[in-house]
Specification:
Creatine Amidinohydrolase; five-stranded antiparallel sheet; 15 strands; about 25% strand
Length: about 250
Amino acid sequence: MIRLKNEKQIDGIRKSCKLLAKLYEYLIPQVKAGMSTKDIDDLCVHFIINHGGKPAWYQEGFPGAACISLNDEVIHGIPSRKRKIQNGDLVSLDIGINLDGYISDAARTVVVGKIPPRTQELVDVTRKCLKAGIEACKAGNRIRDISKAVYDIATAAGFGVVYEYCGHGVGLDVHEDPTVPNVIERGGANPRIQPGMVLAIEPMINMGTADVLLADDDWTVLTADGQVSAHEENTVAVFADHTEILTI
């Protein structure tokens, strides 16, 4: 069931999202070669708790405040002292905050050091996909309009679009209806976008194949061909006359 949010709820979600945006402003400049992914997670935990929030992923059973996915890890990378960041890495950060019961969700792919031009193109295209998906997310359109906007840009550039994982409703829980695929699905639900919807739109774009595998830890999702992946996400709120990006 899709839960449409009222003005008070959207304001609470907005406050959580603004705190998450501030966390990214604080965090991204500190992501450097040599630090462990657990070092990054520790920074997130301290920031969130010191600002009166809770790491949202804890309530999902995830062992970290941030999903930190490196290179061929698409999503849900588990923070670890043993996993060290190196020059040339793509570091995808996916973080959520529970602030007074309201959930925010956003992801950013951080480039560490020098990367090949085609890898930079992957990151740039993933960001373009997110922008296009948000532009298609307006009252009166349908969820599949978001999917088409993301899919068309990524595939035109020759990249694979992850189909097994997708965006979703958010705000009162971490994952809510509706699902927001990044591929154009035939059949299935395709609800109309309505005022009061709060959605996490999140393109996950692979350098090569769109296929993914689940690692032995039962969390980390990997590209099936071992090539790199990028992930960008924002939480948005739909109003009758506009859509607001909350996590900036």
